[in-house]
Every structure is written in structure tokens, then in C-alpha cells.
Design goal:
The chain is mainly α and about 180 residues long. Helices cover about 60% and strands about 5% of the residues.
Length: about 180
């Protein structure tokens, strides 16, 4: 299938049947966009990495890692936090499912969408992570577990990493 590419002026290209894309294509920017694409996979692993721990927390026999995680996030590690309540196990299943789905979605965006629309993918992922950070941290503080908000800062910095800034170009674009 052949697609027609047309220059729209400014710095936009349009691929027939596809999104508008930046017209500049410097080696430096491609390397930066490739690094962003790589980092999206890191982000996906950071997000989805909590899912197996939370899933294991749904069953008494395998809840040890989840209990330790919640105890660490509720600093200090003192064994006060438990996974004994059925509601806690149910919420663990829900949260594990959401995190796995979100992580897989970010991975898929890096594989299937990033090359077509790198900047919108980057912005979408960063906005999603910042929204998680704000709500999760506010809820942690409101529930008396402010220590989790501090852990969230670390997760935020690792998950977003170099995605804070758009890929850069040192050359001018056609006008």
C-alpha cells in the first residue's frame, strides 16, 4: 500500500490517512526520539512491575511481597500493615489489574504509535503519570500515609525520566 506524503508548511507533514508529523528529521532528534521510545518501555515496566506483587496479595499463601510493599510504603517497616481483610485483597486485585493494563498500554504506545506521533505519545504518558502522582500522593497524605507520597516522588522521577522534555533538534525547520 502506497501512502502519499504532503508538506503542509511550517513544520508539518501529512501522511495520507495518518497524523500530521514534524517535517524536520535530524539525526540528533531521531536519536532523542529513539531514546524517548526506549524510556517509554522503562516507564511501562515501572508501572506494570507492581502488578504481580499486588496480584500475589490477593491470596493469603502468596501475600508476603504485597504485605512487605505496603509496610515499606507506610514507613516505617513495622509489620503493622496487613493484608488480612478481604476488601484489601479485592482492592489489590483491582489495582494490580489497572497497573498491568496501564503498563501494557504504555508499552504498546512505544511500539505501535510512537513512530507516528512521538510528541503526543510523550505528552500523554507524562500527563497520565503526573495525574497518578497528584491523586495518589494527595490520597496518601489524606489517609495519614504521607511517607507514600515521598516514595511517589522517586517513582515519578524514574517513570518520567527524560520524557519531561520533548525531543530536541538543533537545526531549523523549513518554513
Amino acid at each position: 500500500m502506497t501512502r502519499r506524503v504532503s508538506y503542509l508548511g511550517g513544520n508539518c507533514l501529512h501522511v495520507e490517512g495518518g497524523p500530521r508529523m514534524p517535517a524536520h528529521d535530524t539525526r540528533e532528534q531521531n536519536m532523542s526520539q529513539e531514546f524517548h521510545k526506549f524510556w517509554l518501555k522503562i516507564t511501562a515496566l515501572v508501572i506494570a512491575g507492581f502488578a504481580p506483587v499486588l496480584f500475589l496479595g490477593t491470596m493469603e499463601a502468596t501475600s508476603g511481597p504485597a504485605r512487605l510493599t505496603i509496610d515499606m510504603l507506610s514507613w516505617p517497616v513495622d509489620g503493622v500493615q496487613t493484608y488480612d481483610a478481604p476488601e484489601t485483597r479485592f482492592l489489590s486485585a483491582l489495582l494490580g489489574g489497572f497497573l498491568l493494563g496501564w503498563g501494557v498500554m504504555v508499552w504498546c504506545l512505544s511500539v505501535w504509535v510512537h513512530d507516528l506521533a512521538p510528541e503526543p505519545v510523550r505528552r500523554s504518558v507524562v500527563i497520565g503519570i503526573v495525574c497518578w502522582f497528584l491523586l495518589d500522593s494527595a490520597g496518601s497524605i489524606a489517609s495519614g500515609t504521607a511517607s507514600n507520597a515521598l516514595f511517589n516522588v522517586v517513582i515519578l522521577l524514574v517513570a518520567v525520566g527524560p520524557l519531561w522534555r520533548p525531543a530536541t533538534s538543533t537545526t531549523s525547520t523549513p518554513s
